[in-house]
Amino acid sequence: MTTRIDGPLQIISLDVEGMTCASCVNRIERFVNKVDGVSLASVNLATEKATIRFDPARTSVGELTSAVNAAGYEVREAPAAVVGDGVDAHEAAREREIGDLRRKSLVSLAAGLAMMAVMYLPLSLDMTLVAPLLLITAAVVQFWAGAVFYRAAWTAARHGSTNMNTLVAVGTSVAFGYSAFVTLWPTLAMAWGFPYQLYYETAVIIIALILMGRWLEVRAKKHTAGAIKALMGLQARTARVLRDGAEMDVPVEQVVVGDLVRVRPGEKVPVDGVMVEGRSALDESMLTGESLPVEKSIGDEVIGATLNKTGSFVFRAARVGSDTALAQIVRLVEDAQGSKAPMQRLADQVAGIFVPIVLVVAALTAAGWFIFGPSPVFAVTVAIGVLIIACPCALGLATPTAIMVGTGKAAEHGILIRGGEALEQARRIDTVVLDKTGTLTRGRPAVTRIAPTGGTSETELLTLAAAAEVGSEHPLGQAILVHARELELGVPAATDFDAVPGRGIRARIDGRAVAVGNRALLEADGIGIGDLAAAADELSADGATPMFVAADGRLLGVIAVADTLRPESSRAVAELEALGLEVWMLTGDNRLTAEAVARQAGISRVLAEVQPGRKAETVRELQAKGRKVAMVGDGINDAPALAQADLGIAIGTGTDVAMAASDVTLIGGDLRTIVTAIALSRKTVGVIKQGLFWAFGYNVVLIPVAMGLLYPFFGILLNPVLAAAAMAMSSVSVVTNALRLRSFRAPESPEQILHPPLAERVREYGYLAGIAVVAVVVGGAALFLANPAHQPPQPMPDRDQMGSVRLVVEDPRE
User: Fold this and answer.
1) Which of 314, 473, 504, 637 has the least CB density, counted as fewest CB within 10 Å?
2) Residue 81 CB: number of other CB atoms within 10 A?
C-alpha cells in the first residue's frame, strides 16, 4: 500500500487479491466510487492494484478497504520484510502462486489425458469397473486443483456478484455432476431419461487448460513489471559520507540532507545533490537514455543512481529517500502502469455486465436444447461450452498489459508518461508548439562570438569584460564570466564597481576604467562604436545581444551573448515535420530574436511577444481550429499552456511545476525523444487494438458456435474441451502480444515510423499469423470433433427384460 498527497486530496494504492477478469475490475470500481469522499477509483487487472483519490476529511483508508472487501475481494498488506536475496514478500508470494498453478495444471492435464485414453481408445475395458475410478480421479482434480474456482465463485456469490470463476465453477460442476450422477445411480438416471454418457475428462481437461492459461499469464505478467524492477535495481545500496572529519560507509537510507558524500570512480551516486569538490564525468544514461558521459564540476547538480566514470568528487546531499529523481521516476512509472487508457473503459463496462448475461444465455440455451434438441446430453454439452468459452479474461488484460510494457519501455528511453490516456493521445497529435527559452534553446546565455577591434586580442577583451562582471548578477554578465573560466583565463580583481540599470556596468581593473554594456552606455560615456555598428546589427539579427567593451574611453570590441540553440533542436524539428506534424514556436521574446532562433531551428511558424498569461489562450486558439496540440515547455509560465494542450510535454531539466502540469516528461531534455514517444504511442495503441480485437472477436465468433447455432445447418457443435483451450489461448496471446513491446527500439529516422523496417514487419505479422494458425488449428479440431462420424463410442444404459441395468457400448455411427 502506498500513499501520497495531491493538494487537499490523498491518493492511495491498494494491492487487491482475487481479481481474475474485467468484471472484477468493474465491480471493485463501482463499490469504491460509492464511498463518500472518493473522487476517483481506478483498478488495474494487470498490476492488481486499486488507485483511489479521496478526501481524508470525509473517509479513511479503513473504509476504502471495507469497500473492496464488500465487493468480494481482499486488500493485501504491503510487505514489510524481505525474504532472502532481496526478494520482497509479495514477489515471493507471486513465485509460490506460479509454482502452485504449474503443479496443479500439469497434474490435471496428465489425469485428463489418461482419462481420454481410457474412454476413447479401443481398449475393451469394462466401463462398469472403470467409471468409479474415473469418478475418484475427477473428484480429486475437481476439488483440489479446481478449489480455487469454487472459493472465488463462492466469495463473489456471497456478495451478490459473479465473475469468470463462476462460469468455470458452474461449467465444470455441470460436467462432473452429470457424470457422477449417471455413475452412482444409473437406474435412476435411465428412468429420468438421462443417457449414460460420461464427461469426467471434459471437466478435468477444462480445469487443466484454464489453470495452465493462468499459469502462463501470471508468468508473462511478471515480465511486464520488469521496468520497475530494473529502475529499483539502479539505486546504490551504500554511501560514503564525511562526518566529524572521517569517511564512513552507511546504508543509503541513512543519508540526510546536507551530508557531504564522496564518490569514487566506478561508483554510483547514492542520492541527489550539488558538487562541492572535484570534477568528473557521469554516465546519466539511466536517466536520459544518452550514452555519452556528462562533464560535471563544482556547482553542478548530480543525480542519484548515475555512474561516476572518471574522477573522485564530493557533493552535498540535497534530495534523499522518496524525494530523489529516481524515486520520483519510479513513482511516475508505477502510476502510469496502474492507469487506464480510454479504450479500456468500454471494455470494463462491457465486462461488468458480461458474466450475468452469459449465465442467463447458458441457462436459456440449455433449456431450449433440452426441450427441442436431440437429447439432454446435448443440452448439457451446449451449456458447458457457453459457460467456458465466454470468460472475459482477455478483455481485461488487453489494455493494461500493453500500457505496463509501453510505459516501462518509455522510461528506458528517458520518457516519463503519466498514464494510459497520455500514451494513447500522443499518436493523435498533429501540431507541436515549442516554447523557445529552455526548450529549443539551452535556457541560459552563452558567449557566441568575440569581435575585438584592431590592436586588441580576444584574450584581453574577454579578460577585461569578465573581471568587470565578477560583481554582476546579470545573466549576460555571468555568461561572459563562465566563458572566461572555461578557457581558464586569469581574471584580475576589479574595484569601483558600478551597475547602471538597463545599460551595463563600470569598474576599474589594473588602473584602467572599463565599461561593459549596450550602445546606450557607451554613448553616455561619449564613446562611438564606429565600424562595429554593422557587426552589432548583424548579431542582433541572429538573436544575440551585443555587449560592447571599452577601456579608458576607447572601444576595444564587442562580445555576443545569446541563449544558444540546443544542438539537437533543428534535427528534432525536421523529424517532427517529416512525420507530418505542424511545428510552431511560441515565445515572449521580441519578434526579431524569435525569428532568428526559428530560422536556426528550421521553424517557419512563429508566435512572438506572447505574454505568459496568453500562452494557454494561444494553445486554445489552435485547438479551436480543430488541431490536436502538443505543448512543449520547461518553465513555470508554461504550466497553464501544458495543462491546456491535448498533450503537455515538459523538459525534465525544467521546473517541477511544469513537470507536474504535463502528461509526458522528457528526462534529458532532448527534443528528439518526442519522436520516440510518438512512435512508442503508435506501437502501443496498435498492440492494444490487436488485443481488444482478439478478445472481442473470439467471444463474438465462438459464443454463437458454443450455443449450437450452427448445429441445425452443419452439424457443428463446439467441444467444451476446445472451448477451454480457446479461452486459455486468448488470455495468453493477449499478454504475450503486449510483451512484444519489450523489443521496441527508438527509430533512427521518421521514415522508420511511417514505414517500419522489413524485419520489424516480419516479426509483427509473423506473430499475428501464428495466432491465426493456432486459431485455425483449434477451429479445425472443433469441426473434426463436431462431426458425428468422429465421436467416440459412449456407454449407454439399456434395461433388459429382468428390469436390471446392464451397460452396452452403442456406436453413433451405426
Assistant:
1) 473
2) 7
Q: Which of 435, 646, 663, 670 is the catalytic position?
A: 435
Residues in the chain: 814
Q: ∠75-79-80 over CA atoms, to 5°?
A: 130
pLDDT at 638 over 60: yes
CA distance linking residue 411 with residue 328, whole number of Å: 12
Place of cell 492435464: 109
pLDDT at 270 over 50: yes
Q: Are strands 246-251 and 313-319 parallel, antiparallel or unpaired?
A: unpaired
* Separation of CA 165 from chain center: 28
Q: In which element (H, E) is residue 774 found?
A: helix 758-786
SS3 of 441, please?
strand
Q: Return the amino acid letter for 574.
A: A
Provide CB contacts within 8 A for 91, sequence distance 6+.
83
Distance CA(544)–CA(378), nearest Å, equals 85
Cα gap 79→620, rounded to integer Å: 46
Report the 10 Å Cβ neighbour count for 83. 14
- The single-letter code of the amino acid at 329 is I
With 0-12 / 13-18 / 19 or more C-beta atoms within 10 angstroms meaning exposed / middle / buried, residue 47 is buried
Grid cell listed for 137: 480421479
CB 556 within 8 A of CB 535: no
Task: Please name the residues in contact with 328: beta carbons below 8 A apart, sequence gap of 6 or more.
Answer: none
For residue 73, give the C-alpha cell. Answer: 475481494
Q: Do the beta carbons of residue 691 and residue 730 sit within 8 Å?
A: no
pLDDT for 808: 36
What φ, ψ does residue 629 adopt, rounded to 5°? -105, 130
CA dihedral sign, ordered 425, 431, 437, 440: positive
The residue assigned the cell 551516486 is 269
The contacts of residue 332 (CB under 8 Å, 6+ apart) are: 416, 418, 665
- Give dist(CA 599, CA 542) in Å, integer: 9
pLDDT tier, 141 (very low <50, low <70, confident <90, very high otherwise):
very high
Nearest 5 degrees, angle CA 470-CA 476-CA 482? Answer: 55
Cα–Cα distance for residue pair 471/467, rounded to 1 Å = 8
Number of H helices, E strands in the chain: 29, 29
One DSSP character per residue, 347-383 reads HHHHHHHHHHHHHHHHHHHHHHHHHHSS-HHHHHHHH
CA–CA separation, 80 vs 206, rounded Å?
38
Please provide the DSSP assignment of 60-122 as one string: -HHHHHHHHHHTT-EEEPPP-SB-STT-BHHHHHHHHHHHHHHHHHHHHHHHHHHHHHHHHS-
Is residue 50 within 8 A of residue 13, CB to CB? The reply is yes
Question: What value does the CA radius of gyration of the chain take, rounded to a whole number of Å?
Answer: 35
H or E element: which one contains 730? helix 720-739
Torsion-angle region of 359 (φ positive above 0: left; ψ -120 to 50: alpha; else: beta): alpha
List the beta strands (DSSP E) in 467-572: 494-500, 504-509, 512-517, 545-551, 554-565
Strand partners of residue 240: 249, 262
Alpha carbon distances (Å) from 71 to 3, 159, 195, 354, 769: 22, 6, 41, 17, 40
Query: Sorting pLDDT into bands at 50, 70 and 90, what band is 757?
Result: low
Q: Is this structure's pTM higher than 0.70? A: no
Q: Residues 535, 537, 541, 542: is their CA dihedral positive or negative?
A: positive
Q: What are phi and psi of 279, to 5 degrees?
A: -155, 160
Q: Is 6 a catalytic residue?
A: no
H or E element: which one contains 644?
A: helix 639-644
Q: Which three cell numbers stand for residue 106?
A: 500439469
Q: What are the cell numbers at 197?
A: 454418457
pLDDT digits (tens, 9 = 90+) for 271-296: 999 999 988 888 876 665 555 577 88
Torsion of CA 805, 806, 811, 814, to 10 degrees: -80
269 exposure class (CB count in 10 Å sphere: 0-12, 13-18, 19+): buried
